[in-house]
Structure formats: C-alpha cells, structure tokens
Specification:
Layout: E1 6-12, E2 25-30, H1 36-44, E3 62-67, E4 71-75, H2 86-102, E5 106-114, H3 121-132, E6 137-142, H4 149-164, E7 173-175, H5 184-195
Parallel strand pairs: 2-4, 2-5, 5-6, 6-7
Antiparallel strand pairs: 1-3, 3-4
Bound molecules: guanosine-5'-triphosphate and magnesium ion.
C-alpha cells in the first residue's frame, strides 16, 4: 500500500467523541516510550505527524488520523503510564476499554512491545484482556535494532513462552525498527489485507 495522504483529524477522550465509524480503523497501543509515535511516523513517512497531537504521559485521548482518505489510524496513550494520578488513570482505563470493546469499525489493534526487554506483566495482562474480549490484535516488536540478532531471538522466544501460559497459539507478530526502517511493508500489507475484508 502506498501512503498518499496522512492527516491529523481529532483528539477525544471518549468513544462518543470519535468520528462516525464509516471507515476501517486500526489502533496502536503500548507502554509509554515503546516507540508508538516513531512507528506511526515511519508508517506514514512523516517526521512528526504523530507528535502533533500527543503530549506523552499526559494525554488521555484517542487520536484519529486519516490515511489515504480511506482508513483511520488511531494513536492511543499507553496503558500503565506513570505521570498521572490513580484517579485519572482509572477514568482513562474505563474510556479506553469502552473504546476498544465498542468501537464497531475497529478492525485490529497493534500492541507495541519492546523487543529488547524480558516479557512485562503489563503487556501480558493487556494481551490476555484483549483475548478475553475477543478483540483481534497483532503484536509489533519495536526497536529491534538495539539488540544483537541472537539476543533478539531469545527475547521473542521468552515472550512466546510467557504467552503460551494462557494462549494456545501465538497471535501474529511483526518485528520492526524505525532506525533500520524494518517492518514497514509488512505492517502496511497486514493492514491492507484486513481492509480488503471490510
Ligand atoms: P510516549 O508517547 O511517551 O508513550 O512514547 P512513544 O511510545 O510514542 O515512543 P516514542 O516514539 O516517542 O519513542 C521513544 C524513544 O524511543 C525515542 O527516543 C525514540 O527515538 C526511540 N525509538 C523509537 N523507535 C525506535 C527504534 O526503532 N529504534 C531505536 N533505537 N530507538 C527508537
Ligand atoms: Mg508518543
């Protein structure tokens, strides 16, 4: 898929505030600093599209971008980010869960996971929650350039093992690096294949 246009549409904290669900939608989520904004910018080949709307660690918003006038890309603040109070976090989690479970045009959720660290409970818990709610998702390992190939393989194997505790089958996954421009075509092909079923 070629990216011909990418524009920021709007930002809202709630499902109710989202644009009308008439186009296929893909959401990106992951812990703070995992590389969400960077990956989105690599995907759409813009230097700072994703940064225009997000205030890292502060925004409790669902940020919509419109790609090729035909599908929505959504940037979500991470689960478990630290800079807000417990009360704010709880209210954001309620909004986030409502968006993820009730957004009718949401075709796939990309969960970004740092490829350089051991499996994190917050990531595993989030994957389990998606599974319990029958929400389709794909794992995107980020920053793969930061580890040697051997270590990277070990980390991926460890993650599969940890998932294997609750999952019979590993969900689809894509290994990416913004620095090495790795995984862009694979991500776009994945999105295109799902759009074709819309
Ligand atoms: P928040 O908005 O705070 O939740 O962070 P984020 O998930 O959007 O992460 P962001 O894209 O801001 O990246 C965080 C840091 O990781 C930045 O310093 C990036 O330059 C760096 N980074 C992102 N992707 C990669 C990558 O593929 N390789 C390397 N080496 N660094 C990366
Ligand atoms: Mg960001």
């Amino acid at each position: 898929m070629d990216i011909k246009s990418a524009k920021f549409l709007q930002s809202t904290p709630t499902l109710k505030g989202c644009p009308s669900p008439e186009k296929p939608e893909f959401a990106f989520i992951g812990r703070s600093n995992v590389g969400k904004s960077s990956l989105i910018n690599m995907l759409v080949q813009r230097k700072s599209l994703a940064l225009t709307s997000s205030n890292p660690g502060k925004t409790k918003a669902i940020n919509h971008f419109e790609i090729n006038d035909s599908w929505y890309l959504v940037d979500l603040p991470g689960y478990g980010y630290a800079k807000i109070s417990q009360k704010e976090r709880n209210s954001w989690m309620v909004n986030l869960q409502e968006y993820l479970t009730k957004r009718e045009n949401l075709l796939n959720i990309f969960i970004l996971i740092d490829a350089n660290i051991p499996p994190q409970n917050s990531d595993l818990t989030f994957c389990d929650w998606l599974g319990e709610n029958s929400l389709p998702f794909c794992i995107v390992f980020t920053k793969s350039d930061k580890s040697k190939q051997h270590q990277l393989q070990l980390n991926l194997t460890e993650f599969h093992k940890s998932m294997g505790v609750t999952w019979e089958e590993m969900p689809p996954y894509i290994v990416t690096s913004v620095d090495k421009k790795l995984g862009r075509d694979e991500l776009l092909d994945y999105i295109q294949a799902i759009i074709a079923t819309w």
